[in-house]
Specification:
Radius of gyration of chain B: 13 Å
Largest sheet of chain A: 6 strands, mixed
Shape of chain B: globular
Shape of chain A: globular
Oligomer: heterodimer
Helix content of chain A: 25-40%
CATH superfamily of the largest domain in chain A: Sulfite Reductase Hemoprotein, domain 1
Number of strands of chain B: 5
Strand content of chain B: 25-35%
Number of domains of chain B: 1
Strand order of the largest sheet of chain B: 3-2-1-4-5
Distance between the termini of chain B: 43 Å
Amino acid sequence: MYSYTEFDEAFVRERVAQFRAQVERRIDGSLTEDEFKPLRLMNGLYLQLHAYMLRVAVPYGTLNSRQMNQLAYIAETWDKGYGHFTTRQNIQYNWPLLKDVPDMLDALADVGMHAIQTSGNTIRNVTADHFAGAAADEIEDPRPYAELLRQWSTDHPEFQFLPRKFKIAVTGAPNDRAVVKAHDIGLEIVKNDAGETGFRVLVGGGLGRTPMIGKVIRDFLPKDDLLPYCEAIVSVYNLLGRRDNKYKARIKITVHENGLDEFKAQVEDRFALLRGQFGGADQQLLAEIKAQFARPDLPARDLSGFTTAYDNDPVFRAWVDTNVAEHAVDGYALLTISLKAHGETPGDATAEQMREMAALAAEYSSDELRISHEQNVILPHVAKSDLPAIHARLQQHGLATANIGLISDIIACPGMDYCALATARSIPVAQQIATRFDELKMEHDIGPLKIKISGCINACGHHHVGHIGILGLDRAGVENYQITLGGDGTEDAAIGTRTGPGFAYDQIVPAIETLVETYLDERESPDETFLDTYKRVGMAPFKAALYPAEEKSRAA
Amino acid sequence: MSRQFTPKVVTANALLEGDVVYLTADDTWTRDHAQAELIEDEAHAQIRLVDASARADEIVGAYLADAKAGPDGPEPIHFREVFRTRGPSNYAHGKQAEQ
């Protein structure tokens, strides 16, 4: 894992000191809110519906136990004893007092963390595959590149006032677990015909009001050219991007309006100019970063304990089958800890749960944890033989839910329970769906099914790429939920299609149940997933089931 | 005929805590919607909003929200404003915890 250099440490401390003075000046009245707002947003501090909210960056979702323990300490000391892990691998505190925020930032700096550029029209936290550095299908660990991008983008003088926010995601595996095609820049580590490793570069992906799948701007970019090429993209966007209309300001619109060919031509011109200016300093830095991401030593371990538990304990077996993924090293596993206990808030963890996960990471996972964009926590380097002991510990802390990738592993934005921008609630809808399907004891039979819920058009809950997407809107002063089907956030990325008119708050869970029943009726075998069935049969049977009265009137 | 004016309350978030506050008839900030001044006149509402917005060292983001008279005082109309009088629905945090 990356440790802060003296430079990083000094930079973050200086920023905290500046912000402390800014908060004091706001409280004593020397700064107006108009003056203060851009300053607080630069440091991740929002004002939400009921309170302030501090968004803390977890760069590329990687944490050590000391950092996770500190997140727990902050939750207990200055918040209400919990934190909310977000769809961009960050953590949000929902109840800080303004005067306490500088102390929270100092506490973060104590463990090499910060909240810089988690808001505002800047390059945001760079996200990555949460299985990075451990997955069996990986070409190369994407995190050193994500860290290089983080250092390059942090306080980059040219990119502090972009037309709009800017999000970059990196994956090192062909199976995309980082939704790179829905990012402003998506980077996929690939091999070319000569066997060299480089990047496939995508631009102009994004969800929100105008969802678009990213377009390939470079099929193969040599690794050494990463920073100058990204700088070329962002600087062309900085010039061409619209500042007259907030809703047309993201790079997806810039690429769409100018055309990929024109945009690419300008990027390549700019790249030719910039390429020489980096002079190899970036590559020297990258080499130093890479050394810190070397995979920990994972000695061979006896598997008998695991096999015995797997063969004899059905609860353990079900949990392994859903929550454990294949590791690059034999005898090891990637363990996903579900933060989606049925009926609980997706992505929330109490301070006690954070401490337990930190302790497990220190003991069993080479001191590493990951946060996924699907709002779960991963122990990336676990010996299979330790899984029974870990499972027993997780059970004592409400963390052993066996539902990864299933219908109750819902991602949901905070919605109108917290967010000032929301048009409807998301969290209670997620809670009710999870509770309902748990009561029905159907979710393992239903199989892989991703439900994603956003409480407004901005799509923080990624509803466009949910197999079932739910979008909460305000229709004439009443909460109303639109459904989309067939979205996909993987390497086969697709935007879901709307089923038709939306559903009232008390009708949305029955509507989801109808969709699932339709799938179970339509599927050819239990192996055919919801998404595959939808792709085969299309919208018609789902629509007929959701809107029976309309079908009848059409037939009449 | 001009459209009938929907009564309003002035609401904002407290600067220090971020909590939802409402302007009372005697120019203090209350955390209780029922204690708010229900403003029935459009011109008066605009003046009250301008006055409230000027109190930048006490509150953030003042605006006028639709409200109606109730037996115990003004009541919110829109569901967003109802949530603001309570707190989130997933935990008993915010105002509902203090009641």
